[in-house]
Amino acid sequence: MVKTHLHLVSDSTGETINSVTRACMVQFDVAEPVEHVWSLVRTKTQMEKVLMGVRENPGPVLFTMVNRELRDILIRGCRQYGVPSIPVLDPVIHALANYYNLEMSGKPGLQHALDTEYFNRIEAMNFTLNHDDGQLPQNLNSADIVIIGVSRTSKTPTSVYLANRGLKTANVPIVPGCPLPEELFNLDSPLVIGLTKDPQSLVLIRKSRLRLMTHEHDDETDYVDLETVTEEVKMARKLCNENRWPIIDVTRRSIEETAATIIKHYNRHFEERQAREFSS
Question: What is the reported pTM?
Answer without folding.
Answer: 0.69
